[in-house]
Amino acid sequence: MAKKVLMKGNEAIGEAAIHAGCQCFFGYPITPQTEVAAYMSRRMPQVGRVFLQAESEVAAINMVYGASGAGVRVMTSSSSPGISLKSEGISYIAGAELPCVIINIVRGGPGLGGIQPAQSDYFQATKGGGHGDYRMVVYAPSSVQELVDLVQEAFDVADQYRNPVMVMGDGMLGQMMEPVEFKERQTTRNLPEKTWAANGLRGRQNHNVINSLFLKPEELEAHNRKLQAKYAEIEKNEVKYELYNFDGEVDLAIVSYGTLARICKNAIKMLEKEGIKVGLIRPITLWPYPKKAFDEVMDKVKVGFISIEMSEGQMVEDVKLSVNGRKPVFFYGRSGGMVPTPAEIAKKIKEIVGGAK
Amino acid sequence: MSRIRVFTGHFGSGKTEIAINYALKLNEEGKKVAIADLDIVNPYFCTRDQTEYLEEKGIKVIATPKEFSNAELGTVPLNTLTVFNDKSYEVVLDVGGDDQGAVALGQYNKYFREEDYDMYFVINTTRPLTSDANSIIKYIDEIQRASRLKVKYLVNNTNLSYETTVDMIKEGYEIVKEVSEKINIPIAFTAVREDLALQVKEEIGENIFPIKIFMLPPWRRELE
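^ Those are the sequences you sent over. The predicted structure of the assembly is below.
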């Protein structure tokens, strides 16, 4: 077992990427994720790899396109407004089927918004921030340890499917410090060789071409169909979620992700003392969305589901699609950097459950 | 002992917790205390977030006003000079981590030359970049250069947050002792979470400073 160390979420992202064999990091500072770039600027040269502070987020994501096209593991990192800037590049990367890892340490929006934690980039991350029929795996860790594990997993998943993978945490996850262990890990995945990389002929007859432009509509449609088949495969294989407190029936089921899910667990403990039983579905992949978690618990849920978010109501749409009319769906959210307290969540749940009883 | 205490250290070493607790200790001793938040590095988990609590106790908090604290600009508070000019205060300065954070002190050099100060260097050996004596010494050099000040005392603040053990603190103490012997700077105290203080005192026997933890995420705040 490796020795545990105390790390800030943002530093841990950097170290996890280094452990996963990330060869290049391209970034641009923005609160609350700047420590990722600061950490990488110190560590990447130490291990003989590339750190580059780009002149903008747009430049950084296009450097990612280039490095990934050349077949190396690459990561970039930003926070909400910066991800908006990167979104064009992400669409190109998805179109060109290039693997890479993108970190979003979310702050309040829209616009410049604020620097405090938020979850209001859910739509952007899961429904395509950029243009076109593309999908991107989105992980939502809730602790620094899970963040480390998922950043490493993200590199494998990206390589396996030749697709961008996002790891999304709110500002709190980036800024807080927790004990963390960097486990010796061996991937169980069968990762394909990057025979498509534009890294010289290497005995091949023709140059590999990295491209997302298709002049013939027939070819572009065929390309889209191929992408869709890949996304269907990802949906089949890569769904991750945690079920908490679902032994037996529950009055209500919370659906919540990231650090907020930890606050919800406290609320659940508070409610338990008052005789109200609440379960928690914690999506770990936001796309593919864990629809099957809902099927699993549906018969145990008495009153319905409540999506609790640090947004004005984004994931709740996927909750409704997953519940599909079988039970009522409620919503509670704070935004702008306001973080709900356990007591506040407990109060809202009592209102719903009390009203139903 | 000087009137002005400066807390510096590696990024994430726990300076803020120590600075707040130190200010509270001086306050309990009946002294007139001011704490200044000079952290230009961290956007979250700062002394300024505890302003209400500290002011209730009668401690003067010098920090960027609340309406600007999220402005994404690393600023030192306008009224920091109070601590140098009004000598009736016992002063605690909470400085941001690393040399980047310590830069904030440089501009007050004139005042530090006029009046003596105690600069503390806070060390947590579970932090990966300060886990051995040599890397700690390198950080001390960098911070002294950036702040244009000299470290007078070391503080052992070895902890792994909620997974801290007594053995871990002892191990950290040995490393801090090695630093102390190598560069001839004494250890002021070992900071320990209140509930572990007695146990650590039995093991280490030297100066123990029990601290209450303030920088907690919301899911730990209401349980403690």
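The CA atoms of residues 84 and 110 of chain B lie 10 Å apart. Chain B touches chain A through 24 residues (CB under 8 Å).

Shout if you want it in another format.
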